């Protein structure tokens, strides 16, 4: 039984990978993110090259991804904004689209187990996202080396590797959400709108709600007490972390900026006697370890819901 399940999963996995790679949607997304990604790296590289010989800067290569140009945002800001759209666009019709076309019932009529279908679709989509992100970062990194003429150090390679993992997990969350919506809603348009609505809510409105709640619990007046300000910011920050966008931005900023030592407010008294130096990679990973675990948990929860829904749904031939 186990070899049969592995063979069925392998065949379905290859089929889904092939469908993604040959789809016009994938080509459009890849062209879009490539153009914007190369533009952001080129703009940042030109600015960095002008100052690289004027001052002694550490982690020059990492600044390619975090620096923004005159009118183009940084590469990491671009990935933070468009990453959810990439994940949602690849999975919003993964199940209900095949159901509407009548191919899902024919697929399940083959000698494969039902859970193999949902597992194969999720693994194939995650693999496509990983290939897309890794290829894009390697390509723009090569362009950055050409522009500034400075190769990355081992420390920078390690931090970029962690950044790749964070970005794949981040987009994977939205892919898992879109897979879940494709099972909850029967119409592909409805699942797409639901995904976009959730993205807008977690991008814009969750920050506003967090600010309103924080002001209600710990209002900050003209001359607030230090304790009130700290509690206000703690409530606002913790509520904002409901959104995977906030979690990703905090983790990404910490790993790509070695000078970041904490993600909360720092009082002036706490800075007295502190040595100005960059944080080692291992210590930066410890700072964002909770963020990594949270992102993995979000993916597992969304996929578990999708798995249960798919196993319990009745699928009839059309």
Automatic annotation (TrEMBL):
Source species, domain of life: Bacteria
Parts forming coiled coils: none
Single GO MF annotation: ABC-type transporter activity
Residues spanning the membrane: 26-48, 72-95, 122-150, 162-185, 192-214, 286-310
Listed GO CC annotations: plasma membrane
Keywords: Membrane, Transmembrane, Transmembrane helix
UniProt KW RNA-binding keyword: no
PANTHER family reported in the protein's UniProt record: ABC TRANSPORTER PERMEASE (PTHR43471), ABC-2 TYPE TRANSPORT SYSTEM PERMEASE PROTEIN (PTHR43471:SF14)
Protein name: ABC-2 type transport system permease protein
Taxonomic path: Bacteria, Bacillati, Bacillota, Clostridia, Peptostreptococcales
């Amino acid at each position: 039984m186990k070899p049969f399940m592995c063979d069925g999963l392998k065949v379905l996995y290859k089929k889904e990978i092939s469908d993604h790679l040959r789809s016009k949607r994938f080509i459009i997304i890849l062209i879009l993110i490539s153009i914007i990604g190369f533009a952001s790296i080129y703009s940042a590289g030109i600015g960095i090259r002008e100052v690289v010989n004027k001052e002694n800067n550490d982690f020059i290569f990492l600044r390619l991804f975090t620096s923004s140009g005159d009118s183009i945002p940084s590469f990491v800001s671009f990935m933070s904004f468009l990453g959810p759209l990439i994940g949602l666009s690849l999975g919003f019709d993964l199940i209900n689209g095949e159901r509407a076309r009548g191919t899902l019932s024919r697929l399940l009529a083959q000698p494969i187990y039902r859970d193999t279908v949902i597992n194969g679709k999720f693994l194939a989509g995650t693999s496509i996202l990983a290939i897309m992100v890794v290829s894009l970062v390697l390509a723009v990194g090569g362009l950055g080396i050409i522009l500034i003429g400075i190769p990355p150090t081992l420390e920078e390679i390690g931090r970029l590797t962690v950044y790749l993992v964070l970005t794949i997990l981040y987009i994977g969350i939205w892919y898992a959400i879109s897979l879940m919506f494709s099972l909850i809603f029967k119409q592909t348009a409805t699942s797409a709108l639901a995904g976009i609505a959730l993205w807008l809510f977690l991008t814009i409105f969750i920050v506003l709600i967090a600010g309103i709640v924080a002001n209600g619990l710990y209002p900050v007046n003209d001359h607030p007490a230090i304790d009130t300000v700290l509690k206000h910011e703690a409530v606002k920050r913790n509520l904002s972390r409901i959104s995977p966008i906030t979690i990703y931005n905090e983790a990404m900023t910490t790993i790509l900026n070695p000078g970041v030592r904490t993600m909360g407010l720092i009082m002036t008294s706490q800075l007295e006697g502190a040595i100005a130096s960059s944080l080692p990679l291992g210590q930066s990973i410890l700072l964002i370890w909770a963020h990594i675990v949270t992102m993995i948990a979000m993916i597992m929860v969304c996929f578990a819901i999708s798995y249960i829904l798919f196993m319990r749904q009745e699928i009839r031939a059309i």
